């Protein structure tokens, strides 16, 4: 819909920004922290862009006060960060590391002293290596109990001060990259294992939500963050439209239906069974999934996906992705008989070949609202780009401002439609380690003076987008 007048953002709207422990903290072996799978994986030759890792990252662990002060000066209302499981339980389970808990106490208290709402992610991809060694991590149902024990420890410790909790961050991505595409730890490429692990992760997600509800923490909310990329058909050709239905179900409903309804979509389950890759569902599983209904849907939105018909015989399968920032190097991919991705001629792409589609955020919000009737917290949205530090410490990232500004407009349109959006966290606050893409892919509103191999000064330098966002917050999202 086009609107001549849009509603205002609610006064409680959380204008925020986000990060994740492994991507910012550094201090990988400090104060009793155990190793996570990423501490090992990033050091496997060839695993990440130019061998970059998060040993130091942007040293947020030691510089959190400076970072929080910058947030306060910007007027940020919320900061989303993740807790490193291996700081709290160095072995994943068993003995608690008090120094790890104390670090997050300090961070939370620092945020609260400036009235910045902490949004805490329980799991942002860094399972303790000890659990991987002990029983294969997410592949073993023991992880459900261990993850629950870790989560309940956090709820009890911080529940008095933290009211916004994210359970699993982008389950579809960490399970997919870890067990299907082989590019995140443990670098497995096996469809059957992918679906098995995903089911166990669903159970773990439901279990912690169930435990959270049982604790009855006053005014506290919890939900998963899902990486949702709404699917468009390439043309009105009914075969392409059906391909887009297939993809929307397999790539999105397959997770969100489980989160909200505790049910797997039928056509996808039929496809998985026919191909011998359906997850093993034990008695009690579906009951647990139904018991873990979230309070909100966390939405990580970056792009849309356009698909066309992909024949069963001779169709396109898994293909190369672009982790180098050389535009145009990713290839279309798909599942024969289901769908195949194609370029959308109406949208631009980033240097990493991610579609730029602000209106897609409007579509995402509408689809989630219409299907699940839950409030939505936008837990991530942002532009990965090459930034240039110019003389006088200027970073003129007008392209990022354009990107963010258009996405904020899309949110306001969705609000006008009646969608309940609780807040908007940009990704990311400072520049950080982009997992497989090194440090050159910058998302922050605050520049960090470091590159792939040289930690340089690690100085924090606000970009032009930092000041733009500051003003936007002051005007509570009104853009003219
Ligand atoms: C989503 C992930 O949650 C985050 O860790 C990552 O860096 C961004 N997407 C950008 O790729």
UniProtKB/TrEMBL annotation:
GO biological process, one term: carbohydrate catabolic process
GO cellular component, one term: cytosol
UniProt keyword annotation of Hydrolase present: yes
EC nos: 3.2.1.86
Stated name of the protein: Aryl-phospho-beta-D-glucosidase BglC
GO MF: 6-phospho-beta-glucosidase activity
Pfam families assigned to the protein according to its UniProt record, in alphabetical order: Glyco_hydro_1
Keyword hit for Hydrolase: yes
Family under the similarity heading: Belongs to the glycosyl hydrolase 1 family.
Transmembrane regions listed in the UniProt entry: none
Catalytic site: 380
SUPFAM superfamilies xrefs: (Trans)glycosidases
InterPro entries: GH, GH_1_N_CS, Glyco_hydro_1, Glyco_hydro_1_AS
Keywords of the record: Glycosidase, Hydrolase
Provenance organism: Carnobacterium maltaromaticum LMA28
